[in-house]
Design a protein that fits this description.
Helices cover 38% and strands 18% of the residues. It is built from 13 helices and twelve strands. It is globular, with a radius of gyration of 18 Å. The chain binds beta-D-ribofuranose (BDR) and calcium ion. Beta-D-ribofuranose (BDR) binds next to helix 1, helix 6 and helix 12.
């Protein structure tokens, strides 16, 4: 039976690629895609989720949920990397939606509809997940597993020297989700940085005649351009796609149980993740964290999943 999945996302190019691969993966039943502000402001994230689903027109359309701003506002966005519209300046049109539901409500509904069966893949700031747990306190123990792209263990941050982007954008929500009873797996920068993708990816995109191919060809090249212009890199990192692979192929990752927390206040360290890595840890372990990945196998999966996304 296909695994039920909610994808909470702030598209974003790597988010968009992860969604493309997930929506055409027959082993996944993507029951909902919920938008969160992060790479782009909340309203744009909601619009981008809709644009992606409309462009891809997957065999089964997921429910969608709309984003609203985190309580403290968004301290950053990443449009300098992902394009002014978050999707590589593709400027997709979207239909006017009559009924829009808040992301946290959609998350609560879908988890309650299938207790213990739903995996949540969090690809953006943890605003919606924290709100869903506040709205329905029993929900924490009904989620099958929460897989989070976020944080850094020994790797430097990617938005400040200390902080990874998703956690930095809403550290208060991240802290409360880290403390929740939900079974969770964190995929930090230390691991996503181990999967560089080269121009081979562009050479292997699905054909323009397929919906997946047409979409990826409008969005993905921008990531290579911005990585070269901003960082002088010829390769890109699709962090969120690596987190998706942790859902579909957990056997490709090494993990350990650890206690993790988030710095919410520091002038220099807000959004930093801390882990009790002392030889004799005193904090109680509250999550599984990926420590290593078979990067060749992940790249192989991405190439195969791209091909599949080009078959419709
Ligand atoms: C994360 O930040 C965002 O820019 C990416 O989409 C990814 O979710 C990586 O730090
Ligand atoms: Ca993201």
């Amino acid at each position: 039976m296909a695994r039920k999945l909610i994808i909470d996302t702030d598209p974003g190019i790597d988010d968009a690629v992860a969604l493309t691969l997930a929506l055409f993966d027959p082993k996944l039943d993507v029951v909902a895609v919920t938008a969160v502000g992060g790479n782009v402001p909340p309203e744009m994230a909601s619009r981008n989720v809709q644009a992606i689903i409309e462009q891809l027109d997957p065999p089964r359309w997921p429910r969608t949920g709309s984003a609203s701003a985190p309580d403290a506002g968004l301290p950053a966005d990443a449009r300098h990397i992902h394009g002014a519209d978050g999707l590589g300046n593709a400027k997709f049109e979207v239909a006017e939606l009559i009924h829009r539901h808040p992301a946290e409500k959609v998350i609560c509904d879908e988890v309650r509809a299938a207790p213990d069966e739903v995996t949540i893949l969090a690809l953006g700031p943890l605003t919606n997940i924290a709100r869903a747990f506040q709205r329905d306190p029993g929900l924490e123990s009904q989620v099958g597993r929460l897989v989070i792209m976020g944080g850094a263990v020994t790797a430097p941050g990617n938005v400040t020297p200390a902080a990874e982007f998703n956690i930095y954008c809403d550290p208060v929500s991240a802290r409360s989700v880290f403390k929740s009873r939900t079974t969770k797996t964190l995929i930090p920068l230390d691991v996503t940085n181990q999967v560089p993708l080269t121009y081979d990816l562009l050479d292997n995109l699905p054909p323009e005649t397929s919906r997946g191919g047409a979409f990826l060809r409008r969005v993905l090249p921008h990531a290579f351009r911005s990585h070269r212009q901003l960082f002088g890199q010829e390769e890109i990192f699709l962090h969120d796609v690596v987190a998706l692979v942790a859902v579909t192929h957990p056997e490709l990752f090494e993990t350990c149980e650890i206690a993790g927390d988030v710095e919410t206040q520091g002038e220099l360290t807000a959004g930093a993740t801390l882990f009790d890595r002392r030889p004799r840890p005193e904090w109680r372990a509250n999550m599984e964290i990926a420590t290593a990945v078979d990067s060749a196998a992940v790249v192989d999966y991405i190439m195969r999943a791209m091909k599949r996304a080009g078959q419709v």
